[in-house]
Design goal:
The complex is a heterodimer. Chain A is an all-alpha fold. In chain A, a hairpin with a 2-residue loop joins strand 7 and strand 8. Classes of the chains: A mainly alpha, B mainly alpha. At the A-B interface, helix 1 and strand 8 of A face helix 1, helix 2, helix 4 and helix 7 of B.
Chain lengths: ~650, ~150
Amino acid sequence: MTKLRKVYFITTIVFLGILAISPLKDYFSEWRAVQRDYNRYIEKLPQKVKPSPLALKQIWVPDLNRIDRCITCHIGIDNVKLANAPLPFRSHSQIPHDITTFGCTICHNGQGLATNFPDAHLPSAFWDKPVLPTRYLESSCGRCHVNENLKQTPTLNRGRQEISELNCIGCHDLNSGYRKSFIPSLNGIGNKVVNRGWLTHWLKNPREIRPQTKMPNFVLSDQEVEVLSDFLMSFKSYTKGVKLDSLPEIYVKNKTDDDFIALGKTRFSEARCISCHAVEGKGGHLAPDLAMIASKATAAWIFNNINNVHLLQPGVEMPQYGFNTKETAAITAYMESEFVDRDTPADTVASHQAPANFFEQGITLFNQYNCGGCHDLSSEKVALNRGPDLTAIGSKKAYQIDFGTNNIPHTLYDYIDAKIKSPRAFGGSVRMPEYQLNKADNEAITAVLLSWQNEPLPRKFVRTASLPSKYDPQGKVGQIIQKYSCLKCHTINQTGGTIAPDLSVVGSQLQKKWVESYFKVPYSLRPLMEERMPNLSITGDEIETLTDYFFKVLISDSLSIENGWDNSAEAIARGKGLFREKYGCQSCHIVGGNGGYVGPPLDKAGIRLQAGWTYHWLLNPQKYKPETLEPRDGFSEAEAKDLTAYLMSLKTEK
Amino acid sequence: MKHLQMLLIVFLIVLFQISCNRFHQPETALQKNRDSLSAAITDSINRNDPWIRYTYSERQGKQLFEQYCVVCHGQSGEGDGFNAYNLNPKPHSLSDSTYMRALSSETLIETISFGGKGVNKSVLMPAYQNTLSKTQISSMVVYIETFTQTKSNY
């Protein structure tokens, strides 16, 4: 051969060799190795599993514009026989969504098109949505199930509840469905507090005085605290110009008298104030802890608050108690003697002279930290100074985030989590206060925030919870419900609180006489509930108006027994047998003095409940209260009627 | 001619090298993320963190167990729940490994579905087959089985 031909020959061989590099790289790629491993693994299994062809696999979801190649390595993902296989061959846990309709990345994030581990799972310079850690996974549920509180997303539900309790909407714009919760107004604060020292102490660190308070710590310097205290002490008139009534003579004369204080203590415990107000941590958590209230608020304020709470604090959720002046004065005397902070020394600074420009300095600070976002203050100079808009925080890109000097991984979820945990660690001009939440709450709020994204999803995927229609009773009934804040605890027609039973059809559930007696003397009926109905001393007329309303309007025609029911002695005996021997209801309910203490005692079921309600409840409890512990026993209609007969015959405690 | 050959060979070797090696990503973001992520994973694995300790089915089962069962069976299945005081016979401890070894998963599923009466035991345990779905009951059984599990999943 000539030299040239030799050259051509060698060059061709070398060129072909280089051409082979690309297919060889593909042959030795990571995912092929994984698939070969899979085939080797399933050979050893006792069950028969089809081996995987060595090819790239993907799920194409045209609606979501995603192509997910996760199943190239996660081969057994939809094969139930591989539930205990090692990763990545393990099958997916049972979920309500079909993998081929949804793909993988819509829930788990990560780069669907990648074919090697780091690109698919980990964040990179060009892909900032790595695979979500399990604790934030429910945020993907929240992207489609907008504001829906599903049973399968407890983290999201908790996070949403935390966000509305902590009143994030005071500074940030949030997604729909959040309203400002009640926060005390600062009008008249200068007149309300016992001395300036309390205010200074509170502003420095609220949690020190009251560990359960919702107010976060603004980490103010001593100087700032002094300025704000001076500023706030200057506000001595209450909302809408209300003036405090002076303490009645009976109080002034008897406030140190033991009998008077004992009367106050009796009324305090009868009224069950601790249903909502804890005392030293024991009790409900719906209202501030009262343990040291007398060191905070003056006696006059406490008296006026109990006497006419809606006048002094418009919009407050506390009900108006029907005490007379003597009782209110006695309770005030009791609180003044008991609920004092005996440890903190009295404020020794006799009189504090505020500097000349206290108002300008104060209002600047007030506006800087956006105190007006939560606390109402009637001053012209109050300006809103809100924080960043959070409605699409879940779509924030990593390059838009200033991580400061923090040593956290550069991902969105780590940023949000760290920001909520210790915002001031991001330094500089961050104004956000420290909430000091526990880890689970922190993660829950992060999960909710991550679900707020602005990537539009196809309509057939998104389920928005319909906002319930607002129930707004009018007239006399409406006034009574407003006065006693019934809807803070009870729900009627999907409006109200969830701590107490739903009263939407109470007229068909309970008997009128029992309801009237319950209003007069509420007692604990359901052992598992922590809160108890307080004794509001509702007047006889008001009780009559309410019960009339309940039994004429809040009823349901479907809760009656068709074809009647038989309350003969045989039916009662059959029902008793079913109750005790066949279904063992006494494991949870007390009858005749003994039994379980899970459901309400059924000793007086015959005078408390209505027959129709009992019958329908027994047939399907979950229809009326989806979260109830009572199992649906699958009674036949005859059995349910017999049980109803038995229960309706129980009218006394023995 | 020899020079040309030399040049050609060098050129081809360079081409070979370039095509074989991966492009190095910029040091900053990826390296930092890999290092801190793996560090985070290895350092801060908290074995008591429910996200790590339990699989998805176990977590579902845990939620259901805490809603329906804890009141009699106790928080860790010991049979010391709030209502156990009123029960006679008391529920047997579910974390007793000798007792639980004798019970297969199917037996547990049957017990929950058909109640105590359905498996010839006390009538005080209700039947849940009409209240809970099969998936829910099997997730509860998976969770109950973790009471006697010595090794965690990860």
